[in-house]
Amino acid sequence: METRRVNPESVNKMKVAANNDEGKTDPIDARIIHMVATKWKTFSANGRPSPYQALRLLHKAFNEETDSLVRVKNRIHDALKELFCDLSKRARFVYTKTGRVLMEEYGFNPRKIVSGGRKSFARRVKSKVRIRSMDTIVQLWNDATQSVRNGLSDMELEALERRLAELWLDYERLSERKASIKREMEDIYLFLPEAAKLKPLRCLSEFEKARIIAESGPLDHFDSARQLLRYAGLNIIENDSGERTGQKRISKKGCVELRAALHLASARQIAKGGIFSGYHAGKIASGMIEGKVLTACARKLVKIIFGVYKSKTVFSEARLFQSESSLRKGQAA
What we know:
two-stranded antiparallel ribbon; two-stranded antiparallel sheet; 4 strands
């Protein structure tokens, strides 16, 4: 006996139409599901092939480690506010080469930094990392000198330093686990048929493609880019009634993780030099808000991925925002 699935959105809309009720009622749901199924509004319940399922599980683990890493980094910055309260560098400085030297050599303890004198501090830092300008060292020294005046005792500073060291170990452990999962995902992805067919799409990294395929599953399961958009919850829904024209928005009723992966990949292409940089600048200039522009880019990315996969042609950035009619005119000329 074949097992089929019904679209939850179709069931919900049919229930509203049949009973004028959006509430959750199991007996009614069963009747509505049967009604939807008899109208052939079903799709196959076949599970994903094993490699795709493994890729999805790894992606879930990657996202969980990312969330854990964010929490640890927040705790690191909270600890730094107490230990090195006058550090004027931005948050990301902590994870640069110079920041790592301060962690490994001084534990970000301002009293240890100033204890040997400025020349000793500068010599020690420069022996570990190449610094083009002395401005960074002077700034760190001044910040440490100011923080020492905060009046914390040696015992308090040592307790905060130990806490920071523990959090730093957690940060490094989580970073290594993320890198390991990332490599494993890339290895699995390279053996999937999507890897070869999407290879011409060089604007996306292999890991970005792996994240998208991890959530979409085999692209052969979709007959059109429109289906893939609906699966991602990026399909446009209207809110019109009579003469009133409401705002259009995306449904957000699809796979949240796929939508997030598409938004992350699109955000990188909005940056200078990305395939969406010019498109993004034009939309912002026309008055469209940032969130809507990013969503529009994500929708275009879905169409690009599906088009490259199905057409088996080389991706051309020059044709990205060119209509088929204008392309034909150019070829005729």
